[in-house]
Amino acid sequence: MASVVLSEAEKLYIVHGVQEDLRVDGRGCEDYRCAEVETDVVSNTSGSARVKLVETDILVGIKAEMGTPKLEKPDEGYLEFFVDCSSNSPELEGRGGEELGTDIANTLYRVFSCENSVDLKSLCINPKEHCWVLYVDVLLLECGGNIFDAISIAVKAALFSTRIPKVRVLEDEEGTKEIELSDDPYDCIRLNVDEVPCIVTLSKIGYRHVVDATLQEEACSLASLLISVTSKGAITSMKKVGKGSLDPESIFEMMETGQRVGKSLHIALQKILDEEENLGTSRPKVGFLG
Amino acid sequence: MAAVTMRLPAVHAPLDSGSLRGGEKHLVAPGDTITTDTGYMRGHGTYVEDDKLIASVAGVVERVNKLVCVRALKARYNGEIGDIVVGRITEVQQKRWKVETNSRLDSVLLLSSINLPGGELRRKSAEDELAMRDYLQEGDLISAEVQSIFSDGAVSLHTRSLKYGKLAQGVLVQVSPSLVKRQKTHFHDLPCGASVILGNNGFIWIYPTPEQKDDEAGGYTANLEPVPLSDREVISRLRNCIMALVTHKIMLFDTSILYCYEASLPHQIKDILKPEVTEEIVLEARQRLLDSEG
Lengths: 290, 294
Description:
The complex is a heterodimer.
Chain A: H1 8-19, E1 35-39, E2 47-53, E3 56-67, E4 78-84, H2 98-111, E5 124-126, E6 130-142, H3 147-161, E7 163-165, E8 167-171, E9 177-181, E10 188-190, E11 198-205, E12 208-211, H4 215-220, E13 223-229, E14 235-241, H5 248-279
Parallel strand pairs in A: 4-6
Antiparallel strand pairs in A: 1-2, 2-3, 3-6, 5-6, 7-10, 8-9, 11-12, 11-13, 13-14
Chain B: E1 6-7, E2 27-28, E3 33-35, E4 41-42, E5 46-49, E6 52-55, E7 59-64, E8 67-72, E9 84-93, E10 96-100, E11 107-110, H1 126-130, H2 132-135, E12 141-149, E13 155-158, E14 165-166, E15 171-174, E16 187-189, E17 194-198, E18 203-208, H3 229-247, H4 254-264, H5 275-293
Parallel strand pairs in B: 4-8, 11-13
Antiparallel strand pairs in B: 2-7, 3-6, 5-6, 7-8, 9-10, 9-12, 10-11, 12-13, 12-14, 15-18, 16-17, 17-18
Helix pairs in contact in B: 3-4, 3-5, 4-5
C-alpha cells in the first residue's frame, strides 16, 4: 500500500495529538473526513458509484450477467469481486498491485459472506440453471489512507444504484425454457441494501484508536482492526491487520467504537443516497470533470 | 460523538475574478498557438511547428524583449541559489545525504555543508563520516538553503547557519512550488502562536514557536515534549487554512496565511475544509489582501 515516510518527531506529534483527541486536521478520533458520493457515473454498467474522501478516490462498477448458480446454493445468485489498483502509482502497476488487489478482494468476499447481507435469492431466475451474477469491479484511483472504508461505502452505493432487468421464464410445450427480457428498459429490479455492511477501519495509535486514518496516521499505527458493521449495528466480520499486537481489552473498545461509528456512517450514506434518488433526472451529473 | 458528513459532489466553480492585478495574463494550454510572428526566440515551454510558436505546457506566457517562454503552473521545483527549502532525507551515502525536495532530481546535502551539533567548526573526519546516521537519518526533515546547482540541475544544499537544521515536532504541508511567493524571509513567527517555514520548493513546515532561542544546540536537539493543546489547535487551524488557500490557488505568504487564519476563527477547525466554508474564508482573506494593497 502507498505509504509515506515520516520523521520520528512528526510521528510523536501525531501520537500525542491523538492522545488529546485533536488530530492534525482538527478532527476528533471518531470523525470522518468529508466524503463525496455520486452514483451512476459509468454509463455501461448496471450500477456504479464514486466515493471521494478528500485524497482517497474509489470507483466501483457493477455488471449483472447471467450465469449458472453454484452447486451448493442452486437457488441463489452470487457476487464476484475484482479490485484493480494500477492507476495509483508506478509500483502498483501490473503485477505489483496484485497483492494489494487480492487482499482487498478477499476482505470483500469475507464481509459479504454473511447470508443476509444481500438478498441472493432474488437474483435467482431458474433454480439450478440460471441466475444473476453480479460482477463488482473496484478501481482504486487515488490512495490517501483508509481505502477499505471508502471501498465498502462505494460498493454499498453502487449496489443501491444497480438496476437488473426483469426477466421472465417461459415454458414451451416440450418443456424447454426460454428467458424473455422485458421490452421496457426501465423495468428493472433494485436490490435491497439495508443489510449490506460497511467496513470501519480502526487504527491503533498510541493508547487510543482513530477512525478514517490519513496516510500519515497509518504510518504511525502499528495495528488496525477492520470491522464490517450493518446499519443496525451488527458486526458481520472482523480482521486485524498490521504487525503490532492488540490487547483484548482494546479490541473490545475498538469494536464498540466501530459499531457506533458504523451506525452513523450508514445513516449518513442512506441519507445521501435517498437525496440523490429524490433528485432523479434533475440531478446535475458531475462525474470526473467537475 | 462520531461525525460523519457526506455530500453530493458539486462542480467546483472558480472564484469570481474580481480585479486582476497587473492586467490580463496570457494563459495557454499545451498545443495553443502563442504567436505566429517569427521574430521571437523560443524559451522554455515552447516549440516551433509550421512557423508558429506553440506552447508545450499549461501556464502563463512570459515575454522578455524577444524571448518568449511559458512558465508552467504545476511544475517540479527548480532550484535557485539562495532559496530556502524544506526537504526530507531519503538516503545516507558516503559523505553526503540525498534530500527529497519535490524537484526533478534528488537534492544533495554534502557532509561538509552541515553544522555539527554543538556548533563545532572543524573539518569532518572519517569518524564523522561513519557517524552520519547519528546526525541525520532517512525520513528526517531539514530546512536548508540552496548553495549551488550541479550541471545536471540537481541542487546542492547547506545548513551552515543556526537557523537551518533538523526540524522537530510539527506538521508538513506539501503544495505546488509555484504557489509560494518569493520574499525576503521565509521563516515567520506568526502572531497567532505558531511559526511557519515557507519552503520555496512547496514544502511548508508549521511548528510551535520555540520559547527561547537555544543557540548552543546547533539545530540538532529535538524537543520531544508533548506540544500543549492550545498550540496544537493553532497549528491545525493554520494547516487547514493553507489547504484552503491552495484549493483556490492563492499565493502563500505570511500575510495571506494570517488573513485566512483570522477569517477562519469563527468556524471550528475541522469545518474549514468543507467546500462552502473554504470558499467563504478565502474570499474574505482575498478581499482583505486587495484592500490592503490598493
